Amino acid sequence: MYLLQKPKGPLSTSGPLGYAAVWNCVPFRRDPQVHLTGARSRSNLVAMQTLGLSGESKRSDGRLKSIFWPTVDNAWDVDYLGRQGFWICQLIAIVQLVGGIAAGNPVMLGIGIASTLIFWVGGMGVREGNWPAAALLFSIFFLGLLFTTASGRFPGILMIIAAGILLSNVRAAFLASEWRPAGEEEDRPTRFNETWGDKVVDQIPAKAWPVLQVPFFSLASLLLLLSLAGLCMQLLQRFGFTSHRGIL
User: Fold this and answer.
1) Cα distance between residue 175 and residue 85, in whole Å
2) What is the DSSP letter of 27?
3) On the CB side of 123, how many CA atoms lie within 13 Å of its CA?
4) Distance between CA atoms of 35 and 49, rounded to whole angstroms?
5) How far apart are alpha carbons 90 and 122 in whole angstroms?
6) Cα–Cα distance between 29 and 163 in angstroms, integer?
């Protein structure tokens, strides 16, 4: 690739057009440092947009308010709340798995694995703005807290806060599902596909949720019924209506 370079000397008046200039044809070399700096700037912009830290973000709420009392005013709110709800569900899925393993009981381990799968897939539904999925996840988790309380154990402050955040997820998913853009030309945030985090939170839910939502609702509904039955049996036993051998 060559670049035309203007001569430094005075112009000549010779030639048929009155003026003529001799232009030097020199090779053009791209500065690797400039190219690398540009690539890094683009990478940083993508990361900042992904985290909601760039000037392109138009979110209405602060981080704390979006967790406990979210509102939706634009497409940026919808996208941010979907990402936030997804990661919350993944965190609780890990907690469920660790709890099942720590119990040391094959039955509790099976329930923990089932809960992990449900919260993992259900998080995809939350990412896609499916509020029934968010409501089902909250119901399963809340019944677990009630079962712990009925067993005579305090569930813990962190578990209560987690239940409150899951309830907030229901509100966020419902508002996101009801929000409609003012017009087709309205600016919207981009779903990236640059890093593994982008693929997990932006690409996989959009492709996997339409396929997995029917198995999710089937398995989650079954787990909800089993949790409700276990809670009822625990309450009957606690208040003396049943014993370990059966109904009195």
Assistant:
1) 13
2) E
3) 21
4) 21
5) 9
6) 59
d(CA 219, CA 215): 6
Distance separating alpha carbons of residues 124 and 201, to the nearest angstrom: 8
The values of phi and psi at residue 19, to 5°, are -130, 145
Residue in 36, 58, 54, 57 with CA at minimum distance from that of residue 45: 54
State whether residue 71 is helix, strand or coil: coil
Q: How many Å is the maximal CA-CA distance in the chain?
A: 119
CB 82 within 8 A of CB 127: yes
| Residue corresponding to tokens 């329930």 | 111
Instruction: Give dist(CA 160, CA 81) in Å, integer.
Output: 20
Torsion sign, CA atoms 219, 221, 224, 225: negative
248 residues of the chain, pLDDT tens digit each: 444 444 555 544 444 444 344 444 445 444 444 444 444 444 454 444 444 444 345 677 788 888 988 999 888 999 999 999 999 999 999 999 998 899 888 988 998 999 999 999 999 999 999 999 999 999 999 999 999 999 888 888 999 999 999 999 999 999 999 988 877 767 778 888 889 989 999 999 999 999 999 999 999 999 999 999 999 999 998 887 765 555 44
Q: How far apart are CA 84 and CA 72, in angstroms?
A: 13
Alpha helices in the chain (DSSP H): 32-51, 63-68, 75-103, 106-127, 131-150, 157-178, 196-198, 204-238
Instruction: Please check whether residue 92 is in contact with residue 123, taking contact to mean a CB–CB distance below 8 angstroms.
Output: no
